[in-house]
């Protein structure tokens, strides 16, 4: 017989997954829109180069600002883009440092267990992708995580490519309720609810949390980092709900990944 507490946890997990799916639907819509824009621009460049050279489009300056560019909308990049070429030592351990407005969070990563994930984070960090980005989501009821990694700050942004799921059995076998425990201090990939759909978003677990074993656990926070996230959680969510923007704003000022 399912207890009321198990039922509450199940409902919380289902809500978490529905939100991820809605975000992915919005991302797909944006990608389709921008694919059409890109195709139209390609035709203009191919067939209308002479007109552009003579200034025929000089009156379209205001209209051009309406189209999303990669810098405006990272999620607009086609999802078919390949993931970065493997450049990390797949046998080594790495550290990711997140310097935030409220202190530093250090995350230990093992490339032997999650090579694609570690490689992607190093690639993005080296490019400054995470610099000056906000951790956009905090959950404080049944699921206890702070979610970061979206330059848009909306939960819909991504790098334009996806990486495969990894290390999914690391936290043990799923129980009768279909979940495993993500211990406090765990850092794992967010996804859309579909296999191999991780991009740049990740979540920091500040209290033991039960979730399906479908989120790549790729790192562990140090004690100081965990306390910093716990302090953010204590302040709660804007509007007093259990899921939304953290009341205590967290900005990743600089991210760096280094080999141990």
TrEMBL record:
Chain intervals for the UniProt region annotation (Disordered): 1-32, 56-87
Residue ranges of domain PPIase cyclophilin-type in the record: 103-257
Isomerase recorded as keyword: yes
InterPro entries assigned to the protein according to its UniProt record, in alphabetical order: Cyclophilin-like_dom_sf, Cyclophilin-type_PPIase_dom, Cyclophilin_A-like
Biased composition (Low complexity): 67-85
Enzyme class: isomerase
Taxonomy, superkingdom: Bacteria
Keyword terms: Isomerase
PROSITE patterns, alphabetized: CSA_PPIASE_2
This enzyme's EC code(s): 5.2.1.8
Pfam families: Pro_isomerase
GO molecular function: peptidyl-prolyl cis-trans isomerase activity
Residue ranges with Basic and acidic residues bias: 1-24
Presence of the UniProt keyword Cell membrane in the record: no
Function: PPIases accelerate the folding of proteins. It catalyzes the cis-trans isomerization of proline imidic peptide bonds in oligopeptides.
PANTHER family from the UniProt entry: PEPTIDYL-PROLYL CIS-TRANS ISOMERASE B-RELATED, PEPTIDYL-PROLYL CIS-TRANS ISOMERASE-RELATED
Protein name in the entry: Peptidylprolyl isomerase
Native source organism of the sequence: Streptomyces mauvecolor
Taxonomic placement: Bacteria, Bacillati, Actinomycetota, Actinomycetes, Kitasatosporales
